[in-house]
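ingest -> fold -> write
write: protein_1
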Amino acid sequence: MWRIESARVIAALARMVNDIGLAEELAQDALVAALEEWPRKGVPDNPGAWLTLTAKHRAIDQFRRRDTYQRKLQEIGLDQELRQESAEAELDDALDDHIGDDLLRLIFTACHPALPVEGRLALTLRLLGNLTTAEIARAFLVPEPTVGQRISRAKRTLADKKIPIELPPPAELPARLASLLEVIYLIFNEGYAATAGDDWIRPSLCQEAMRLGRVLAGLMPEEPEVHGLLALMEIQSSRLPARTAPDGRPILLLDQDRSRWDRLLIRRGLAALRRAEELGTLGPYGLQAAIAACHARALTPEATDWERMAALYRLLAHLTPSPIVELNRAVAVGMAYGPARGLEIADSLRDERALQGYAQLPAVRGDLLARLGRAEEASAEFRRAAELTRNARERDLFLERAAAGSVTPGRP
């Protein structure tokens, strides 16, 4: 319940107390109270409202004990003679968040230009995605202490500069959009392929990212990349029902039962992709959506247009150069033109610092080597991938492939 509700609770509190760090502390206090009370009294009908109301009452108690109580009451919009019922009424209004206003306010604040890009991403993933510092470090391919420092500095900067928890004026929205889209995408990606833990996927994160994407598409309907990201998330999410076996075991893309793909999400995603194309030239997210559409439009693995996919990856690499994009291009090229050509690209990435601890590099090389009949080398690569991953399901998959020497294409 905490994982489901925490982002909304923190967002509502942050707007009220205008301090993200304090909002997170108050939410944690409310969680402790829930752990004490719910086992005895039962889970309330509206857990999010209970957590937020409890946290708000604790905030009021704290402010009363401080010399700054009157000033704090003014900051959170309460009358000097606060009544319990008026506080609860304000909370009811704040929790009536059917279009995610509080969450968007929090995301835009966390993406404020006063923060460095790395700090914006780390803070928003921590607050909105409820990811651990270790999971964020994995998403950024940087050491865990670095992420912890980024989050602490970001909170301190927002507090010191007294940056309000609010949506930016319309004129400032485009400048803040790129960072916000990246944050939503990283939240989605963590749900689509969990970096750590026992679960291969975390659908709740995918759903939250898609919800935020849909809200943002309503807020900025003329921005092609908003629709491009939404298309990418919906097309990718369509595969979630087929990505795991009943026991939670991962099922790779070309082994999936495509009849289990969610056709409604595919239709929605393709419609969003068309909208992005109508609005202008596709950006990075639109191009990734076009790549995902190559899979979505193919009723069988054999019908996949791998040549088009390889060409799209080349465009994406030109637009946003990245070793991870190149690694994905290696998979597509290997399927379109043979594993030897894909291996050439993958081998060229072996010295990339950003990929030194990235499990997918040896996994892709292992697949390409296996398809070339170099089974012993392939097994060594899969064992290396198993050592690098922090996801238990993924580790089991790599070890199985190392033992079996199977030839199953990776996940582009």
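write: protein_2
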Amino acid sequence: MIKVGIIGGAGYTAGELIRILLNHPKAEITYAQSTSQAGLPVSSIHTDLVGETELSFVAEADYEVDVLFLCMGHGRSRSFVEAIPADFKGKIIDLSNDYRLKETADGFVYGLPELNKKRIQKADKIANPGCFATAIQVALLPLAEAGKLKEVHVHAITGSTGAGQACSGTTHFSWRNNNASVYKSFSHQHLGEIGESLVQLQPAFADAVNFVPMRGNYPRGILASVYLETELEENAAQELYEHYYAAHPFTHVVRNSPDVKQVVNTNRALVSVKKHGTKLHIISVIDNLLKGASGQAVQNMNLLFGLDEAEGLRLKPVAF
């Protein structure tokens, strides 16, 4: 069994990670650490786990594990990693944005399996991608590999859990409910990792990725609506996408426009491509907490330890 330690265990991504790993046939949670909740039952914070686990949060990390999942806030993982004892032999999967960019990666491999599966399998340290970044890259990677990318336009909407568990003026119910808003237009922090991945596949790509993020009035899920000019016909684009994702068990190319409910509670990404005049319109949907965070982190763990990529991740969508 893979022995797992979870650092920063009280947030949304940690809760989803615990829910998945409790039912993973080849992994065992050794502990979940939380400075703020130490001593409390895990199920008192992650109340969906009542009756599922007797784990309580611990205050300190234990390094006698095979893998550490870092579920701390952005900016905190780096100081934690720098303090890990030199004799630690386990692997690290970081869910923050601290190691996603090449100039600050410090040996971490960017953990998008649809892009870097072979590199992930040989790695010891993984930088898990961002949720918006995952949805947008899944929409664009086949075009980049084919050298077909031009200036890209993206509108994408995310559920409130994408902002994390801490309350703010734009996450509490009375503001978010029956509301929608735009934020960080053309400046979202995930643009950096998206750009690096696209250039990895299409080195000459130097056009803009124009990204307008939106907040939705629902808890979880991302829908990315992407378009660009292309000479590709629709059938050729469909074949391009189907070929690219043929070896990737969680990304599926569909004929009809996908919606968020098809992927909530799963590690799946659904992608559709349609031609409208000279423009190719790509829609991708993911669950921001699973394929956009914790599910993808477990997918990466499976790859790191030579398991079936989908082990423990055959989750069912919530239809209603």
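write: annotation protein_2
The two ends are 35 Å apart (CA to CA).
The chain has a mean pLDDT of 94.
pipeline exit 0
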